[in-house]
């Protein structure tokens, strides 16, 4: 098993001694202080937000917990107040689909230097799974400058790996032709899309595809198991978000969690309620601080993602930390009156194991009825799947006596995932109870 290529990249980028965790932490503390000073001077938001932190009060990484969090709500409310460079230096603006309560949308700003750092990270991150014998197909947006597909293609070119950016997965037959024509061996894409493609075009998967990199959304274990066992694919996952500058971390050959972009990011796990740091091995909310961003550094940004740092060293032999696979988002679970939860993660593991299902939607309505709408590509299995699913999900929610269950096939729904219509659509579980909507 080869060591993660990110180790050499981080050592070279930071100038630390190989294997020296103390030097990496000293580098990160120095960059946090520089970022705070830069943001105070150039960002209207951070000039006020960091006023509570006096000079000389952050002397160790442990002191970072005293810096106030940055929230998604603040970013939605006034994105331009975060910008630290003149408008003419902005080379890409990304508007995210997630809307705030008042209709605001998060906007993220990048300079050329910000995008170059992401290309540099992608170059080494993709070496975790590819070599020059591979041919990569990217099923992500890529027809504009600075888009994910554009950055990935530039990164792979530096390693001499041919890359085809297909863009949105709108035509299965065209994707199949592209795979055959370009002798594709590796696909980078959104989890539910790649699963759908593999089920609808299983023959070309079996013939051609050896490696997968799943990114931009939660990756259910059921999906990884199917893709690995059915097609003998190595399935890697990437963790990142636009706020991080797209790239956050990627699995190595051990495939037991992500090695992080620690030259550009400082990552913490905190208790989602108290905000206090948690011990390694304990799950909490992922929080990150940008270390090298020009246009829009974010300091202690709360992601809403659920994860934990591993207590054990990675089998690949790196000294870098390992972030366990993200377990979903806090807003992808519904809190019930009895302090229990219905989680999208648990529903995924049950529902997506049925190969006839291409997508589903879960909604808890005002009558405390959990409605599961499933889309099948073979409706002849309708009754069988409804019966089995109802039994499995009823067992899952059996202790929630106020919840009833209804499982239906969506007769009018297109037989393909919602994420094929909007590739950056984030799957979620919907809580439509009035008292929750009004909170």
UniProtKB/TrEMBL annotation:
InterPro entries: AMP-dep_synth/lig_dom (IPR000873), ANL_N_sf (IPR042099), CapK_Type1_Caps_Biosynth (IPR053158). Pfam families: AMP-binding. Residues 85-288 form the AMP-dependent synthetase/ligase domain. SUPFAM superfamilies: Acetyl-CoA synthetase-like. NCBIfam families: DVU1553_fam_AMP (NF045666). This is AMP-binding protein.
């Amino acid at each position: 098993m080869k060591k993660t290529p990110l180790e050499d990249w981080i050592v070279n980028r930071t100038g630390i001694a190989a294997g020296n965790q103390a030097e990496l932490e000293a580098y990160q503390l120095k960059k946090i202080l520089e970022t705070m000073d830069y943001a105070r001077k150039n960002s209207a938001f951070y000039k006020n937000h960091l006023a509570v932190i006096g000079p000389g009060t952050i002397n160790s990484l442990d002191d970072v917990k005293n810096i106030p969090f940055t929230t998604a709500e603040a970013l939605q409310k006034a994105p331009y107040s975060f910008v630290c460079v003149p408008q003419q230096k902005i080379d890409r603006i990304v508007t995210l689909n997630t809307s705030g309560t008042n209709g605001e949308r998060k906007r993220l700003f990048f300079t050329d230097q910000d995008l170059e750092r992401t290309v540099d990270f992608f170059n080494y991150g993709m070496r975790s799974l590819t070599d020059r014998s591979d041919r990569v197909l990217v099923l992500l947006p890529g027809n504009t400058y600075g888009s994910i597909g554009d950055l990935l293609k530039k990164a792979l070119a530096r390693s001499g790996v041919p890359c085809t950016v297909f863009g949105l997965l709108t035509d299965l037959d065209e994707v199949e032709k592209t795979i055959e024509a370009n002798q594709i061996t590796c696909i980078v894409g959104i989890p539910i899309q790649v699963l759908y493609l593999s089920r609808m075009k299983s023959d070309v998967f079996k013939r051609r595809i050896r490696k997968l990199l799943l990114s931009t959304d939660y990756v259910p274990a059921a999906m990884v198991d199917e893709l690995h066992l059915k097609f003998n694919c190595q399935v890697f996952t990437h963790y990142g978000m636009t706020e991080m500058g797209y790239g956050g971390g990627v699995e190595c050959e051990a495939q037991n969690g992500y090695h992080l972009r620690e030259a550009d990011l400082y990552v913490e796990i905190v208790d989602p309620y108290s905000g206090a740091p948690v011990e390694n091995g304990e799950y909490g909310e992922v929080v990150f601080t940008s270390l090298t961003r020009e246009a829009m550094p974010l300091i202690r940004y709360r992601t809403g993602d659920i994860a934990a740092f591993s207590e054990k060293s990675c089998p690949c032999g790196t000294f870098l930390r390992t972030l366990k696979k993200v377990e979903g988002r806090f807003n992808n679970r519904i809190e019930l009156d009895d302090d229990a939860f219905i989680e999208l993660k648990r529903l995924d593991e049950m529902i997506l194991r049925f190969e006839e299902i291409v997508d589903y939607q879960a909604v808890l309505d005002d009558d405390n009825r959990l409605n599961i709408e499933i889309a099948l590509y073979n409706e002849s299995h309708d009754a069988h799947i409804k019966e089995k699913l109802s039994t499995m999900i009823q067992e899952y929610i059996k202790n929630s006596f106020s919840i009833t269950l209804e499982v239906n096939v969506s007769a009018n729904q297109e037989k393909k995932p919602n994420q094929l219509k909007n590739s950056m659509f984030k799957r979620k579980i919907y809580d439509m109870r009035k008292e929750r909507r009004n909170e």
